[in-house]
Amino acid sequence: MSSPALTKSSSADRAGDKIFSTAALVAGCLILAVLFLVALFLLVQAFPTFLAEPADLTGGAGFFNYVLPLVVGTLIGAVIALVIATPISIGVALFISHFAPRRLAQGLGYLIDLLAAIPSVVYGAWGVAFLAPQLTAVYEWLAKYLGWIPIFAGPASNTGRTLLTVGIVLAVMVIPIITSLCREIFLQTPKLHEEAALALGATRWEMIRVAVLPFGRPGIISAIMLGLGRALGETMAVALVLSAGPLIASLIKTGNQTIAAEIALNFPEAFGTRLNELIAAGLVLFVITLVVNMIARWIVSRHKEFSGAN
């Protein structure tokens, strides 16, 4: 026979499990409900834009002709940020997790976390006040010697406030996010996998290549996609750094704009059809972010069986 004390303890545990599972279910449903309501609001508010005459919209050429340059600018800035940030972030995370002395690794970890907490407006102010003027000479050199490449065609901007500058600022902003996640993933690599590789004669780099990176591949992809989401939706830093203008092929000329910055700069004075147009642009950004996350989940699910994460 079980004692009354054990029976009461089991009943309390079952009640606690039921409460926790119910709370978790409610939280999950709440997230889905909020996402559905946001999508519904964007659709309802953006619908008049799709019915409006092209002459009533910005540029007088229709909504998609208006939003396409913004989409291109948004994607280019985010891609530049990821191209710069991804190798640096993975390298820093590997150094902290497998190469740096313990005290130095702890200090670098705190520093990375601090960088992730800095407001975006601070990065934007740094980009426009310090980074942009420093890059003007670099842009002139690129226009002079690599101007035959369309993305470096001149004349270069004399202010440095270009899409390439925005990409660099966004890279600095997403590096702490990707680094922090990758560091935690690398630290979770089973020690037996690492020790087995070293016991078989692998060097430190070979051990990382055959044990650490395959184990962390799904997590690395997730970290990169999270950084991409930050770059796609960044507003204040882009609005401060970028000199808005028409879509151009060169990255070192003044011009281009992103969806988030376009909304932030024009929303306070917008009304009527213009307001619906900006909300429709936000709907496009919402769809882009959703598609990016769906692709990321597909990539992770496709490769997770080849890692130790499962």
TrEMBL record:
Q: How does it sit in the membrane?
A: Multi-pass membrane protein
Q: Which CDD domains match?
A: TM_PBP2
What are the GO BP annotations of this UniProt entry? phosphate ion transport
- Tell me yes or no: is Cell membrane among this UniProt entry's keywords: yes
- Xref: Gene3D superfamilies: MetI-like (1.10.3720.10)
Q: InterPro entries recorded for this chain?
A: MetI-like, MetI-like_sf, Phosphate_PstC, Phosphate_Transport_Permease
One GO MF annotation is: phosphate transmembrane transporter activity
UniProt keywords (A-Z) are: Cell membrane, Membrane, Phosphate transport, Transmembrane, Transmembrane helix, Transport
**Localization, UniProt:** Cell membrane
Signal sequence region = none
Query: Could you list the residue ranges that cross the membrane?
Result: 20-43, 63-96, 108-132, 162-182, 231-252, 278-300
Residue ranges of domain ABC transmembrane type-1 in the record: 71-296
Classify the source by domain of life: Bacteria
Q: Which family does it belong to?
A: Belongs to the binding-protein-dependent transport system permease family. CysTW subfamily.
What does the record give as the function of this protein? Answer: Part of the binding-protein-dependent transport system for phosphate; probably responsible for the translocation of the substrate across the membrane.
- Please identify the protein, giving its name as recorded: Phosphate transport system permease protein
**Species per Swiss-Prot/TrEMBL record:** Psychromicrobium lacuslunae
